[in-house]
Amino acid sequence: MTAVQVIFYLFSLVAILSSVFVVASPNPVRGALSLVLTFFAMSGIWLLLQAEFLALILVLVYVGAVMTLFLFVVMMLRVNVMSLRAGLVRYLPFAILLSLLIIGMMVIVVGPKQFGLTHLPLPPALAKDYNNLADLGNMLYTNYAYPFEIAAVLLLTAIIAAISLTHRKPHKRKIQNITKQIAVKRADRVKLVCMPSAKKINLVNKPSGAEQ
Amino acid sequence: MMNIAMPLFSAALPEIFMLCMISFILLIDVCLKEGYRIVTYGLTQLTLIAVFLFAMAQYREYPYPIVTFGDHYVVDKLAILTKLWVLVASFFAFIYARHYIKGRSILYGEYYILGLFAVLGMLIMASAYSFLTIYLGLELLSLSLYAMVALQKDSAAATEAAMKYFIMGALASGLLLYGISILYGVTGSIDILTIGNALQKGLHVHNPAMIFALVFILSGLLFKFGAVPFHMWVPDVYDGAPTSVTLFIASAPKIAAFCITMRILVQALPMLSPAWSSILVVVAVLSMFSGNLLAIAQTNIKRMLAYSSIAHIGYTLLGIISGPTSATGYSAAMFYITTYVIVAAGAFAIIALLSKQGIELDQLDDYRGLNARHPWLAFMMLLLMFSMAGVPPTVGFFAKLGLLAALVEAHYVWLAALALLFAIIGAYYYLRIVMLMYFEEPREDLRSNRIAISPGITTAITLNGMAALILGLLPSALIDVCRISLG
Hints:
The complex is a heterodimer of chains A (212) and B (487). With 212 residues, chain A is mainly alpha-helical.
């Protein structure tokens, strides 16, 4: 086994185990953190495939930005883990059956017999001064210009959808209405309650006027 | 430097113009005051009309298929006709939507803009010639639809429906992508043309990985279609979504989904037709069976039509199954899906029209004695229901007839017999609505409830209902068009 193979299997093992843990972990924060680990392992595999730029982007964008934000959201939300687990026992047999079926198919199909070097030739060795980034740019802005533009439109749609679903009325948005705040009257906020005064005043002096 | 062939921008004129107009409308809508929202609506409809004209012009301009943009884009008869149908269906969907969203807490501008993005996604799907563009178009469409379902923010049902739709849709996209990745692994390409040619030469045909890829791609597609066993989301989404959005989901996207199915199955993987037609036989029989049977048990008309749409997708698949051996199979399927879309849009439009502000009248009981309350609307519903059931003078009859003829020609007589049996079962629940409308008394509380419909909407619904009748009386032109586009 060559060194490259050892590294490949190491990264693959980490990727598989951590992605299993994403689903299985009882704590959403730990789940998100194991997803970060999965991304790291995947970027290692991409590095082995000589896709250096994409590997770095995966770490920078997904680990650095997307997952950080995701973790933030997970911490902010109070996720009720128990309610997420409800029905687990009921669906588990189906889930195991389906997973075994799909894994079985994968084991049969995805292997050297179908994807070996007899089917696809080894890509030619890259030149010393080969630039991953330049190649990617060339592809993206020539042959793949059309899909690239569509992806941009997709992002625009996502922005519009997200804004219209969260930040636009009619919805309970936590926002100050300044006009209302200024126009407020004393009667709206303060209610004077007539209470019988206490008969015996305690010696410990309570601050007066702490009426709510 | 590498030499690049400049893409033929004029070929993609409909999409480019549409994108420019969407951006323009987006900017205009931001500046509009509350009372002038009609401008957004008007511009939206004008855009659809203009794009329709551009696509029309392309039909004459490009008699032969043109592949450009680095083999990611194609203009052929199938693409152009799909676009024309999608645009017409969306035009009507927006007409009906305007009435519906007026009285509800649905964001006006965003509704049309997201709708236009969905239409753009469908146009991209129609012209997609690589798996990458197919996927991106599909995502653009789906993403807009998820948001449109959730736009009615004060409705818990709509939010739930959007969530279900989103999760199921994401799963389907994952399946589709996994299939595409395997396909790429085997053939080394994501071009439909390249894959088709490689298979034609006999390469990879006996590779089990191809079947593996096919299964995953097919599952993704059937998920989007809403065929059994991937139909779970259909009733919940159709029921929970605002009716105008249900109308939109039930109409134009079906045609676009049919177009990409033709591209993938017939243009890229025709050599695997024994494999995919046997999968589709099972799916079609299950869809017709459970769609028609479960529809009988429904009391909510939106849910009923959702199950009926599952059954109709099953019928459409019959045409695709018979396609490889029968000359008319594919065109019969296209005829079926286009006419179904017209009819479904009309039926959902009537449900949307009957609902008053805040009250959804979508129970079967609400249709009791509709004839006494609004005879014309009841007559239109009668035509639409007859067409769905396949009663002779309407177009649904010819659609089913074409499919059965194709099936018999392809020696699937048993399948034709089954389809006929399920059609008879299905006729029960369509005719039950007609019975309720004509032979029953209106419910007490609805008797005095006047149905007020503006003349514009009446014209639209009349056109829609009459289309079901007139296309049934004179179906040959549409059949020819379908045949040309898939010839």
